[in-house]
Amino acid sequence: MFPAFLWSQADSSKTKLSFSGDFRFRTEQDWNSRKSDGTYRDDRTRLRYRARFGVTYEHKDWVSFGIRLRTGDPKKQQDANLTLGDNFKEFGTLPVAFEKVYVNFEHKWFSGWAGKNTFPFEKQNELFWSDNVFPEGISLSGTFNFENSYVQRLQINAGHFILATNGTSFDSDSYFQGLQLVTSHWKNKLELFPSFYHFEKMSNIPDGNETFAINYDIVQIGTKIELSKTPIITAGVDYYYNLKNYNKSEVIPQELADQKKGLVTSLSIGNLKNQGDWKLGLTYTYLERFAAVDFLAQNDWARWDYSSQGSNDGRLTNFKGVEIMGGYAIDKNMTFKIKCFIVDQIVPYGADKETGNRVRLDFDIRF
């Protein structure tokens, strides 16, 4: 079996199967994490790791199937990492689950997939949608190329995704729908991606502990621009605005009813594509409570979660802060990154605003 696996990796023209995988080892330190009651969480040091393995089968030149396994607590959808020595007894077995199971279609300008797969809309960070959250549903996309100096590409992305079904009609499900336009300009130096996301019957607390459900209508205006090729310097801006009016809600506190805007700005220099490459990045985030669905977004920036309400998922909206990143490519498929997060709450949920500082060292290898 092992030689056959290597053969499939080495010469994909002789087989319809292809394999991929990656491994991450992480060192993480948290400090200055203040709770809403004014007390502080204990400083925390963790050693963590993540492993993923995927298989793709090309049935025809226009249709393929894929699956991918990953480590991670199945009750923490935003986090595929495991902590060394964390509740798995002495050298016990580890939780592993399917994160992707899908069929993919591609023909000329059209592509699409059905099943459970990667978030299909253009994004440049995880502050609206985590890379570890894989939606279930149907995604459709059309791509059109143009030969002129103003617009080089137009892509239309759309999809319907079910978060929770109650076994009756579609309109009674908890779901989200998305529609996005992606355009490239100035010899692909500028990319624009205006988007609209509708979230229906979203629980206020994930994993079945909700006390009420709300809807979101979020407009996103995203842009990414290449400022220089040598060295590579890129800048990005994402603006979010939730069109829903919560002022008359009986369940949403008045001090949070107008918390519906978000702004993310970033600047980076360098890349990590080849051996010896390096990269530096700075991201500033201001994300109000209802500018995103907090338990579908990243949980990297702070230790805030729903554990006190019976859920392990993170709640990373209603915060502002910065991320400072540095990276180095040891090899083409091997990188080292350091990230530092400094976070402060926008509207307090109690007597004090929550805070959090975190630094991470990541070693990643993929094949």
Summarize the structure.
The protein contains 2 helices and 18 strands. The protein has 367 residues and is mainly beta.
Can you describe this structure?
This protein is mainly beta and 367 residues long. It has a single domain (20-366), classed as Beta Barrel (Porin). The protein contains 2 helices and 18 strands. It has an 18-stranded antiparallel β-sheet that branches.
Topology at a glance:
Layout: H1 2-10, E1 17-31, E2 44-60, E3 63-71, E4 82-83, E5 96-107, E6 110-116, E7 136-145, E8 153-164, E9 174-185, E10 190-192, E11 195-203, E12 213-229, E13 232-242, H2 254-257, E14 261-270, E15 278-287, E16 319-331, E17 334-345, E18 355-366
Q: Which terms summarize this structure?
A:
mainly beta, Porin, 367 residues
Write down the overall geometry. Answer: globular
Q: Major β-sheet, in short?
A: 18 strands, antiparallel
Provide the β-strand percentage band: over 45%
Oligomer state equals single chain
CATH architecture: Beta Barrel
Mean pLDDT: 93
Measured as a percent range, the helix fraction is under 10%
Please state the structural category: mainly beta
| Helix/strand order, N-terminal first | HEEEEEEEEEEEEEHEEEEE
Q: C-alpha Rg, in Å?
A: 21 Å
The CATH superfamily is identified as Porin
CATH class, please? Answer: Mainly Beta
